[in-house]
UniProtKB/TrEMBL annotation:
Name of this protein: AAA1 protein
This protein's record includes keyword Transmembrane helix: yes
Listed Gene3D superfamilies: Amino acid/polyamine transporter I
Chain's gene name: Slc7a10
InterPro entries, per database record: AminoAcid_Transporter
One GO process term, biological-process aspect: D-serine transmembrane transport
Taxonomy of the source species: Eukaryota, Metazoa, Chordata, Craniata, Vertebrata
Transmembrane segments: 16-39, 51-73, 79-98
Keywords: Membrane, Transmembrane, Transmembrane helix
Amino acid sequence: CLATLIIMLVGDTYTLINYVSFINYLCYGVTIIGLIVLRWKKPKIFRPIKVNLLIPTTYLAFWAFLLIFSLYSEPIVCGVGLIIILTGVPVFFLGVYWRNKPKCVNRLIESITCWGQKLCFVVYPQCGSAKEE
């Protein structure tokens, strides 16, 4: 998010749209790959909508073409898009993966979350832990 804000302030909107579109296509393809892997590894689980595997496979073929073409035609834009994605890795490890965090880190994360909720009007802020209520 911080990298995107910096790019918005420094660059133009067209460049930001190019970065985000590459990231979106990458995420769409990974989602379709996940769908195919789940259909292969867990064929018996309940699925409310089941499609023929020809549809996601065809989509993946076009997706691979678009991704390879994007990497070939604009490697810098794709590289910056990948860097934007990778800026989330430390956030994931600090906020999700690291289970035994000190209380001060938990309080910091909670206050940043509450501040972000108030700033963006995303959800009704419920600051403070459940123990206080």
